Amino acid sequence: MSDPFSDLMAFQRETEALSQVAGRLSWDQETVMPRGAAAQRSDEMAAIEGVLHARRTDPRVGEWLAAIDGAALDPAGQANLRHIRRSYDRTMKVPAKLAAALARLTSVAQGVWAEARANDDFAAFAPTLREVLALKREEGAALADGGNVYDALLDDYEPGATAESLEAMFGALRPRLVALRDKVRGRPAPAALSGQFDEAAQMKLARHIARTFGYDMSRGRVDKAVHPFSSGSGNDVRITTRTAAEDPFNCLYSTIHEVGHASYEQNIDAAHLLTPVGAGVSMGVHESQSRIYENQLGRSRAFCGYLFGQMRETFGDIGIADAEAFYGAVNRVHGGFIRTEADEVQYNLHVLLRFDLERALIARDLEVDDLEAAWNDRFEADFGYKVDRASNGVLQDVHWSVGLFGYFPTYTLGNVYAGCLHAALRAARPELDAELSSGDLAGATEWLRAHVQVHGGLYEPRALIERATGRAPDEGPLLDYLEEKFTAIYG
Amino acid sequence: MSDPFSDLMAFQRETEALSQVAGRLSWDQETVMPRGAAAQRSDEMAAIEGVLHARRTDPRVGEWLAAIDGAALDPAGQANLRHIRRSYDRTMKVPAKLAAALARLTSVAQGVWAEARANDDFAAFAPTLREVLALKREEGAALADGGNVYDALLDDYEPGATAESLEAMFGALRPRLVALRDKVRGRPAPAALSGQFDEAAQMKLARHIARTFGYDMSRGRVDKAVHPFSSGSGNDVRITTRTAAEDPFNCLYSTIHEVGHASYEQNIDAAHLLTPVGAGVSMGVHESQSRIYENQLGRSRAFCGYLFGQMRETFGDIGIADAEAFYGAVNRVHGGFIRTEADEVQYNLHVLLRFDLERALIARDLEVDDLEAAWNDRFEADFGYKVDRASNGVLQDVHWSVGLFGYFPTYTLGNVYAGCLHAALRAARPELDAELSSGDLAGATEWLRAHVQVHGGLYEPRALIERATGRAPDEGPLLDYLEEKFTAIYG
């Protein structure tokens, strides 16, 4: 005898397992795949994606969902049901023809974008972006059912979030961030790290730091790739980082960032393995983990003291006299155009710009032809200097080319959540700085594990943060933290 | 408008792509997978295998096959149709319940075998082997449709081969091989290589030798694993090898062997990519490529001269005075119990033993309880000394535990085919030794590419070898080659 919930979950576990297989294939592609295998790999990836799509739209899922009595389930069962229902409803709302057209177009569009970026030529990308935007507007309208189109897209990455609530939060962030940037800009900057640092030694130190932050190497691994990323769930969660001889901070802080993502996946209650609850609950909460590991913990004065010692042990004299100067070098606020290279003060300004522009694009308040000018104007207003070329401006991110409208705000939402969690962690753990200064992350990562990570997808994102911190999340703690930290450094 | 052959081939291409995905997952498991991921990986592998099984038994395949007019197809189309039909017919003949029971049992049996081998305890494995054998007899009977049960199993690995034809061939091999072994045993053996050889340097030399044999590194890669293997088809064909400080020949000749397998897959006409014709046609032909690369080419006097220079360049003085002594060390006939470590003279005696025993098991002429004694008696008769323990005897190979009855004879068939191909290659290429002695494999591998590898599964195995050599394959050339070579070395 079978019951519909058990049948649904058995089917879903296989789907999750196949989705992990697709993830392993992506990891392979970015790390170890022979370069001549690229075209064949597209066929392999398309085949597994086709299998996943067929399972996600399998009519049996609809029948099981209709037959299940949700009230009779335990909390994990109810949460799994909620995730499966949300995903199934979304999938069924998008006409198959539109979904296929989007998949086809975005796989081509990424290549067009990459070439346009290499040539600093937005006009070469514009026609393709127009097509992507048209299909995403169509998809958003299908999902929104008469409601807000942007919210419908955003919901894919941050269930429950709305543009309106984010506008209020981001609206409060922007003036204080711009003011902080202005204040910092007027003061003498700490000296930057300079010199050449052996790349193999960087990787060795990165692996040590990854372990220090609690990353379980027996269920993961660290490799080099063009872009740092974290991949997989449960007991096989791998990260990548990159190295450049002149910039060991890139390698080390990319590693810590990805360890935040990976630890979240590794630390979810094993009972939820290969179910929807057994994965990070949203992009925003995921980013909260990567950012609190990277910034509030990894770039703290206390941890920088420990890292300074590790750097000198690894590389000898690094041309920086003491831990305080090292802390300044790590947290140096610097010019530049690229979001992924931005410091803590300016990072969210990059995101807010994209959030406003992509809402305008989706709402038809802005057209693709005017996008580059709108980007450049806004950049100058927030950063105080002009974009010098398209690859440093509107062409820098891959997201829009692959249809990720509604994704950008989750970066800043993650920072806001990280701010809230950091305040709660400090309150719960007065000994935190003493621990960090000796490279002991066990207390901090255990607090995050127990309050956030272990739950996986059991609670909705905002409810999870509220449960962990005891209060509804808002931008206050992040702003207070940034102002206090950077006023002290640039005092 | 669609036609049934196009529909079938489109479906089949996706199946082949998914089968490659499963292969990538196996590669990952043996090379880079974190050790803590093993249990989760079983679920992932089971999910992709489930998808493949569903596709192989999809009733649409039967409908397409019934609707296709094979006579209207080109030769590649006819060959693909033949492969798909054979595979579908075989799959449909085996009851789903039996197939599932076999899959379940063999995945457990491998673990039981490994533990029994570690404890040298055949009795601990016997009950499980009895179960595997019972199911394989049942499967063979279902496949044989009243015909020969062993032939039906053999057909999975070597289409068209029969036990009767192999008995004749192997019956001619055995006395001459035993006589050669006796003769060699009575003469003084060349000195063995001894010393310690840096393992990273072994890998570097192995990669160089792989390239020398024509392996395309832009569509493959060489890694270390517990067992050497080749994995994948077309433009992503990876090999593994292993290293031991005291035995660089293991690393180098495992590499050359796997390069033979991998080159076969890499060199198939790209028009057949991701179709049944786009893969090696049988285990026997596959082994013919690995063995001719490894033995007739790689262990030739001429190539050993080149390798001697490479070894000295890599490791300095290796304690062997000249190329002739090095050739002797490479081809030293030695005692031992293990098939995979056997020299060219004795290797096929190991296989013949297994072939006779497994036919007796399938035919119920031998029962599992008597297997160990039968093994030990036969070993002493052919090799002249007694098996000292089960892990050196009946428990040494994984094959039977995972149900591979009918697989062993393809190893010797591969050697026989390699003998035929080698004779034809020598006749076509009088300059071969001059080339080999300078490390120039281009002519030899091009001949094998053009006469064997490029065709993939276009021709049936025996027809392919006959086409390449101009005569029906038989054991004569292999025996002549072995007697001439080892009489000279041990002269």
**Could you give a short account of the major beta sheet of chain A?**
3 strands, mixed
- The number of E-state strands of chain A comes to 3
Q: Helical element count of chain A?
A: 20
CATH architecture of the largest domain in chain A: Orthogonal Bundle
Please tell me the overall pLDDT of chain A. Answer: 97
Q: Which structural category fits the helices and strands of chain A? A: mainly alpha
Strand numbers in spatial order across the main sheet of chain A = 1-3-2
Oligomeric state as shown: homodimer
Please give the structural blueprint:
The structure is a homodimer of 491-residue chains.
Chain A: H1 4-31, H2 38-56, H3 59-67, H4 75-93, H5 96-118, H6 122-144, H7 149-154, H8 163-185, H9 199-212, E1 222-224, E2 230-231, E3 238-241, H10 248-266, H11 283-297, H12 301-315, H13 323-330, H14 344-362, H15 371-383, H16 409-428, H17 432-437, H18 442-451, H19 461-469, H20 476-489
Helix pairs in contact in A: 1-2, 1-3, 5-6, 8-14, 8-20, 9-10, 10-11, 11-16, 12-13, 14-15, 14-16, 16-20
Could you give a quick summary of the protein structure above?
Chain A has 491 residues and is mainly alpha-helical. The first copy, chain A, has helices at 4-31, 38-56, 59-67, 75-93, 96-118, 122-144, 149-154, 163-185, 199-212, 248-266, 283-297, 301-315, 323-330, 344-362, 371-383, 409-428, 432-437, 442-451, 461-469, 476-489, and strands at 222-224, 230-231, 238-241.
